[in-house]
Structures are given as C-alpha cells and as structure tokens.
Amino acid sequence: MNGELLMSFQTWAARFLQQVRGVNPFDGDCLPTRVSLFGFGRPTLPFPHPWNYKDPIKIFETFYWDAEKETGSGKHNRYLYVAGLPPVLLTREPAVIRAVLAATGDKPGQFDRDTSPTAGIARATGEDSLLYANGPAWRRQKRLSAEPFSRSNLFQPEKFHGFEQTFRKTVAERLETLRSHQQASGKKVIRIELEPEIKVVMLEMLVNNFFGGRVSYQELRERFVPALVLLIDHMIRDTVAPISQSLCAMFTGRNAILKQKRADFEALTDIALSGRAEGLGLWKQFKSDATDEALRSNIRVFLAGAMEATTSFASWAISHLAHAPEIQDQIYEEVRELSAYDPDNLASAVTLNRVLEETLRLTPALYFLPRRATVDTWIETTDNRKMFMPKGTHLRLDVWHANRCEEFWGKAVTGYPAETFAPDRWEVLARKGITAKDMLHFGFGHGPRFCPGRFLGLLEVGLVVGAVVKMFKFTAVGEETRAKAGVSTKPADGVLVDLELRT
Ligand code: HEM
Predict the structure, then answer these.
(1) pLDDT band for position 241 (50/70/90)?
(2) Neighbouring C-beta atoms of residue 149, cutoff 10 Å
(3) What is the dihedral of CA 443, 446, 449, 454, to 10 degrees?
(4) Number of the ligand 1 atom closest to the C-alpha atom of 370
(5) Residue bearing the CA closest to ligand 1, atom 8
(6) Whose CA is nearest to atom 20 of ligand 1?
(7) Which of 16, 235, 291, 358 is the most exposed place for a label (fewest CB within 10 A)?
(8) What is the CA radius of gyration of the chain?
(9) Which of 132, 205, 311, 451 should be mutated for ligand 1, with most atoms under 8 A from CB?
(10) How far is the CA of 445 from the centre of ligand 1 (A)?
(11) How many A from CA of 77 to the centre of ligand 1?
C-alpha cells in the first residue's frame, strides 16, 4: 500500500469510528446537529438518488425533519455523516451562509466551490470554466471576464444604450408575435404557458444582442432551445447517477440524440464566438489574446447557465405577478410612459425593482450554493460566533429555506410572513434603514464568487417583466404555484396564465 493510499484509509477509518460512536465532527458556538440516514415519516432520503433527484428541495426538507426540537443554531445547521465519508453540512442560517461565502476563494485555506453537485455540467461544458474551476484556474477566468461584465461597462451610457436598445427591440418583436397570436385567436383571453416563450427571448438576447451572433428566432426556438433543455436535463442525471445514465443512454438509443444535441450546442457556441473577430456585442469590450478555443467552456456555461438563470428569474417574477393583479397595475403605471430602460429609469420604477428583489428572495433561481472545506476551518459570523468544520466537509448553503425561515425573514423582522410574496417588505425594511445589502438573500450569491452576470441579468429580466406588464394583463390559472427544481428553480406550471391585451 503506498503512503497516500494508507493516509486515505486512515482518514476513512477515523471518520467511520467517529460516525459509529456518534462524535460530532463540528465545534464552536453554532454547533450543527446530526441527521440520521433513515427515519419514519420523512419526505425522502437525505441524499439524491435516481428516484428522488428531481425533487432536491424535498431532500433538503428531510434534513430539517424534526429539527424544531433542537435549540439555537442546531435547528438551522444539520449534518449527515455516514459510510466513512466526509460530513455533508446543510445550513439555512444566513449568518453562516454569509461567513462561508465571504471565505470562499483561491487563497490557502479558503473554501472551494464544491464541484460534486455539478459534475455533469462540467462534463458537458468543460472543467476550466469560471463556474466550475477552483484555485488559480478560477482566478484566471475571473480576470478574463471581469471587464465585459463590470457595472461600469454594462451601465456606462453609450454601452448600456447599445445593449438596452437591441434587447428592447428583441423583446418588443417577440411580444408583438404574442399579441398577433392573441388577436388572431379572436378571443379576449387566451390560455398560455409563458415559460417556453421567455426561454427563447432570453437566449435570443444573449446570443444575438450580447454576443453579437446572427441566428434566427425560428432556429433558436426549434433547434437550439430544445437542444439546451435536453442537455441541461442530461447534466443533472449525469451528476446523480452517471453509470446508470450512460447505460440507459446506450440501450435506449438516447446516445444518438445526445450526440446531435451536443453538436447543436457546439454550433451555438460557434455562433456566439463568431462576433469576436468583428468586435460585435460584448466582444468590443473584451481585450484578451486567449484563443477562441480557450474561451469555449466559458461561452458554453454563459449560454446554458444564463439562459437557465434568467428564465427562472423572469418566469418567477411573472408568475408572482400573475397572482397579484394590483401589483401588475402599479408596475403598469410606472412603465407605461417608459420608452427606454436606462439605469435612472429603472431605478425610478420602484415597484418593479421591489418585485425583482422579492422574487429573488422568495424563489431564488439558484436554490443552494455548494462549497467544500479545503482544510480544517473555523468560520466567524458577523455577530462573532464561530463554527469549526473538518477538512473535506461538503457544504450545501440552503438559500431557499434560509429565505423562507420566519425567524430571519418573518413578520417580526420584515412586516410580512417569510413565505408570502410581499414586495412591500422592502419598503418596511427601508423605513428601518435596512437595505437589500444588509439583509442578504443571496439571489446573486455573495463574496468573491458573486455572479458576474448580475447587471446583465437584471437588465434583461427588468425589460421582459416591464414589457409584458405594459402589453398584457395576466392571471395565474392555478390558485397556488408550486416550485420545481433542477439546475435552477422554476414555477412547476410553466407559468400557465390567462392572457389579456391591455387596452
Ligand atoms: C439574472 C439571473 C441570474 C441569477 C439569478 C444568477 C445567480 C447566480 C448566483 C447565485 C451565483 C453564485 C453561485 C455560487 O456562489 O456558487 C452565480 C454565479 C455565476 N453566474 Fe449568475 N445569475 C444570473 C445571470 C447570469 C448571467 C446572465 C451570466 C452570464 C452571462 C451568469 C454567469 C455566472 C457565472 C459564470 C457564475 C460563476 C462565478 C464564479 O464562480 O466566480 N449569471 N449566478
């Protein structure tokens, strides 16, 4: 047995012994409590497997099963520790989430992004992307993308206007199609799932307006969006059960379909890169001698990831508004005279901004953020509490449940119950002098691995939501909209609404 193997065996044996003896491997003031592998009455098992992976939020709920009987931090910080493997820590405590995110990066001893829940994404997009890479490779990618995604760049008047105008034109054209469809039906109200429409507009803005590509709406809708949707689904299955997934693909003929969809994805990546030589779209701001080949994994991540995240964000915002006609009307009053969504106009659309903030809080696109302790680590929260985590701990920063926890976001703190969609809570908080920056909801992350696409995403989603409200009134068909979750969360009903033209 060589030295390295011996050491891993010793570590495994030490963990296994701790697990059998029930020793808590964590320490400090915010001590996590243990979740057992099996238990009666729980929603599912506390880890993903081929029969529950489509409902990850349920897996997280299992961690909190019976947690109410714990006190203090033990209610919100829960760990699974089995089979000699490193512990998996799930936390819905905002102070702990914030401390871990702030201590993530490429410096010695900092947390890495845990790549285990995204292994399938890396196989499909490449391992050296900004999203997937850790350490020096991540730092290199971050430097490369800093300039084109910076606030000063996207919101600088002449650059912003260029994007804003083409984005607005794209959105207007698509809504016009929807309007004609509505008029041609001869009905006052049509019933339609809006999420598929939103997805195409989001990809169109990204490929044609942001990357300066030239691809028809038809081709995006019929070829590229279906290819991305199938590949994203494949990425999730390929992460949870890679072996059964590839066996299944081999025997069902799915391999041939996957091959075709991968070729489509490569063709779309080529289209996004094709504007580089002419300096179109964002490429004007992109100064680097990296070869096109070296940029491919990032482009793939931007295309698939950004379509997914912006679609989730816009779909949720429209879905929440579909349950709240009075808020739609308030936004309508704000945007009816708006002809351009420049930063000043956007800032003055107060209700729209609060709706976007509240959407990300209640229904964040990325419902958890994965991290891994690279060494034995002590973290310190802003209120000076400490937690020790052993090297190798897999952290699941559970933003979804943190933002729905009454203790942190409920009536006593924000004026409204945590699980209610209430844009006015931001007004209550503002009156107390508390901003979104103080009350982090982590909708775009926090710390060094904060989302570089935030300004672009906000611009796109603000435009789409504003434009939809300006043209239509829409009402949710179901009384309540449930969530589904994969790479991101989405309304389970595909944003099924009754759509009516505003007169
Ligand atoms: C508007 C909708 C969007 C939402 C809600 C969103 C959300 C997030 C969140 C929460 C993170 C942090 C992940 C973590 O800490 O583990 C993140 C990271 C990232 N986002 Fe976004 N995002 C959006 C749009 C975009 C767009 C438009 C792009 C690019 C075109 C983009 C590219 C990325 C990349 C590359 C990272 C990884 C950054 C790093 O690890 O350093 N996102 N996003």
Answers:
(1) low
(2) 20
(3) 40
(4) 16
(5) 444
(6) 451
(7) 291
(8) 23
(9) 451
(10) 8
(11) 25
Mean pLDDT for the chain? 91
Supply the residue whose CA is at minimum distance from atom 41 of ligand 1.
Answer: 449
What is the amino acid identity at position 443? G
What pLDDT band is residue 493 in, cutting at 50, 70 and 90?
very high
Q: What is the pLDDT of residues 122-159, one digit of tens each?
A: 888 888 899 999 999 999 999 888 777 777 766 676 66
Q: How far is the CA of 101 from the centre of ligand 1 (A)?
A: 14
Any ligand 1 atom below 6 A from CB of 463: no
pLDDT at 213 over 80: yes
CA 413/CA 461 separation, integer angstroms? 28
CA 185 to chain centre: 36
Amino acid at 413: V
Asked if residue 121 has its Cβ within 6 Å of ligand 1, the reply is: no
Burial of 294 (0-12, 13-18, 19+ CB in 10 A): middle
Reference 387, options 62, 47, 87; nearest CA is: 87
Neighbours of 138 (CB within 10 A): 22
Please state the atom number of ligand 1 nearest to the C-alpha of residue 399: 10
Taking the CB of residue 244, how many other CB atoms lie within 10 A of it? Answer: 11
Cα 240 to middle of ligand 1, angstroms: 22
Q: What is the DSSP string of 373-428?
A: -SSSEEEE-TTS-EEEE-TT-EEEE-HHHHTT-HHHHSHHHHSS-TTS--TTHHHH
Q: Is the CB of 399 under 6 A from ligand 1?
A: no
**Would you say the CB of residue 389 lies under 6 angstroms from ligand 1?**
no
Residue 296, both tokens: 């491919």
351-379 residue pLDDT tens: 999 999 999 999 999 999 999 999 999 99
Q: Flag whether pLDDT at 21 surpasses 70.
A: yes
Q: Which residues contact 185 (CB under 8 A, 6 or more apart)?
A: none
In tens, the pLDDT along 314-345 reads 999 999 999 999 999 999 999 998 877 777 77
Cβ of residue 302 lying under 6 Å from some atom of ligand 1: yes
